[in-house]
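Colleagues,

Please find the record for the two-part complex below.
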Amino acid sequence: MTEADIRVLVVDDDRAIRRFLRTALGAHGYVVFEAENGQQALRDVVAHRPDVIILDLGLPDLEGVDVTRRLREWSQVPIIILSVREYEEDKIAALDAGADDYLTKPFGVGELMARLRVALRHAISQVDDAAQFVLGDLRVDLARRVVEVRGLEVQLTPTEYSLLSMLIKHAGKVLTHRQLLHEVWGPGYQGEKHLLRVNISNLRSKLEVEPARPQYILTEPGVGYRLRSNV
Amino acid sequence: MYVISGAAGSPPALPRFAPEAGRAWRQYLYGIGLVALVSLIGQPIRMVIDPTNLVMLYLLVVLVAAIRWGRGPSVFTAVLSVLAFDFFMVPPQLTFAVSDAQYILTFLGLLAVGLVISTLAVRAREQAEAARRRETHTAALYDLSRDLATAVSQDMVMQAAIRHNRELFDCETAVFLPEGDRFTLHARSAGFPLDQESNAVATWVFQHGQVAGLGTNTLAAAEARYLPLKTAQGVIGVVGIKPRLARKMFLSPDHERLLEALLSQIALATEAVRLADKAHQAQLLRETEKLQTALLNSISHNLRTPLASITGALSTLRDDDQMLDTDARWELLNTAWEESERLNRLVGNLLSMTRLEARAMKPALEPCDVEDLVGVTLAQLANLLRPRQLVMDVPAALPPVSVDLVLAAQALVNLVENAVKYSPADTPVDIRAYVDQGQVVIEVSDRGVGIPQAELDHIFDKFYRVQRMSDMSGTGLGLSISKGIVELHGGRIWALNRPGGGMTVAIALPIAEPSPGEKEMQR
């Protein structure tokens, strides 16, 4: 699949946003469909079979979270949600409901394209079984479970490693605290955020040059963490 | 002449209500005693001089009785004196028979002079007493007005009224005032009954402007008497008074007058306080309006400035695209981009300000690594910071702080943005974190011109901007929002000038208590 074939459904009640997205996405060769509200979006998903959905959380008729939930009942199409900064809870709810990623308004088109590419890549190959993950000076040999920074091997604890591999599996995508705790520690650990905080801190101190200005593992304040997919 | 001794403590206590009737008969007894005494003393003298001269002694007794005990006893003493004189002094002794007709004249003279003396003496006594009462009342009123003059609030006026009523009349007091569209008990002394009835009577008094309750013709069954507080504006409230001891209310006309004077003073003071309150409210409102105007001006100016840059850049690109080379185009695009980021931060700050002021901000506190807090902050300012040198000293070993990461990052973003904005582009910005007095301190320092010492405390005030920097953009909201957020976390914020130029703004945030699970992990 090339970009030219990719169909994007933009769901936003604001005409200016739709216009900007139509233009920007069109210029990148995406085929753009537009919906003004949640009901129309649900119908258009059936009618146009988009490859990815850009969904605003502040729709006039339905909560974005509900749209996400209803879509996830039958579809795995990647969903990128748009929100404003002040409503972290809504973002987290939508992400936990199955949305793939989010963008905070206002956002640049660069960010948008990066999110789209990541979401599409994960959609195409659900399990990224590449043996090697390379990001800047970080190299992870997933088959041999070896982690190197600038060519030097780094010793990780089993928890740190499974946290890192979870991030690598979803590289470029935001993962909520809840998702990470559930995947790495297992069910029943959703409330133990300190486990996550301490292990992220340890990972950074082992992988990052300057942990206070991380280049690999980014914090999404109030939401979760994101491993960059490229530097 | 009487000197009002108002300044010396409480006024002399007034006789409680009316003088007690039980004491009167005793004064008559004293009169009898005095007459008997004079008659006894007169016996030996009578042998030596003419009995007629002894009349003087009896007149003395009448005078004493008149001065000491008033009209009744003095008239009684005068009559008794005539009888005693006749009985003991005039021959034949020990009978009321009179041997010499001239004594009849003496009797009449004694009676007449006795009565005149008693009238005059009683009048003098009454005047003296009236003057004393006036003094006492004046002192009482003076005392009250002094208390009222220093009262700055409704409550202080009420407390003064209650205290003086108790001291002067031995009464429990309650004050009822209209509040909005309701009429409610405003203050009362402990012994005043608190029930439906009192409120009902007070309401009646308030509506009719007339006295009612105990000792009046209206609603006399009430436990207390209710009097309207009147000013030129009409009835402004109601005072209830209830005698402390008996379920009776004796008030002499003097007391009634004093009570009236007291009430009018209380009414005036209440009115004065109310007017002062109103004036204060109006003043506050004006200040608020001034602040709002300043806010609107500031918002309008600061929203439009970046908008002007964006519009300017975009219109140039749209209209004059042919004339622009790549560099110029790039420059314009970057301007528009940076300005819209600034606009976004500004809107965020305005929103936070509103939420802070409405106390609608509830920080979701969680342990957070200082490194992470700093990292999130710097990530949000990545474009602004790209050309700047950043000197960091944030040790990894710092204990986690207890913060809402989103809010705390916003507080720190404002600090860093300020440091970048108010210092030359070729100077570094320093970020340093350390533990001090059980809190984590994060300092942001620049090499700008610093702040005049006197103004250091004001930079966190809303809309404050150092005068000579007024050409720089900014709402003057950033630091005050940081302050609001930091204080919401139970932290502190302060600013100081740096040795060698520039200034430091520091925030201190509380260290997070390790959770039970975490303690386990550390073991």
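Chain B has a mean pLDDT of 81.

Comments are welcome before we finalize the supplementary table.
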